[in-house]
Fold LysR family transcriptional regulator.
Amino acid sequence: MSLDPRLRLRHLSVFLSIARTGSVAQAATGLGVTQPAVSKSLRELEDILGAPLFDRTGRRVVLNPAGAAFQRLAGSSVAALEQAQDAVQQAGRTTRLSVGALPTAATRLLPDAALRFRELRPDCTLRVSTGPNWLLLSQLREGALDLVVGRMADPQRMDGLTFRQLYTEAIRAVVRSDHPLVAVRDATDLGPFPLLLPPSGAVIHQTVKSWLVSIGAGDHSGAFESVSAAFGLRACLRSDTIWFISEGVVADALEDGRLRALHLDAPMIAGPVGISLRDGTMPSPDLDALLDALTGSA
């Protein structure tokens, strides 16, 4: 079957932007065009394909199964076009890899691997993006990222992706070094202290939520929600906040004594940390070198 001659690159750009943001308004802002223009392009694309691509819920739009399948293939096609353009425009110059880093990998694993990679491939620029799990995986599916490093997402978020485990990592409840609970043999009783919890959408959100329920603290609402290393560290150092976070995010602060991990008689389950790739990815020499560097740094 030949490509429909009505299909234009703008249709794909609009679709992919809506798929990433879940919002026509945000897509319009990101593309620098009006909302009616974005809505018109989406209607044209759905007419061309003969099927709706999103389920509408108020002002939000969510990919339906047809949209999810189209995102994977259309995103890969746009990424291939961008790579072809780069290959011509950057002939004889540096290459580039785009990597998504989840918080647990952004503090140690990826920086260490990036330095190893620099020695192996000095002519390749490594562009590192951070963000919530759902956004990075969406960008990976459509080819905007070459790989994502961090905790494995829930199985339903891994459609069209593969995962290579590097190691397992615990979730810790951490506090400042002189926090009242540091000396407690079993600090599972969280008392009146404010909690800093992973927000909905974070990979560790459900694990922490389930743990709180298991110790009878399911109604203990968080004072703060974030997985930001900078925010969490300062909040802990300047208050009695208890921060639930992947160990890798706070490894340096635990080693140098700024933070301490609480002793919990009911520890949280460790989870896999590794590399997410698109199904069927054929590694380039640059990507192979980065995979080796990540494996060597784990």
In short: The chain has three domains: 9-72, 94-168+272-297, 171-269. The mean pLDDT is 88. The chain is about 40% helix and 20% strand.
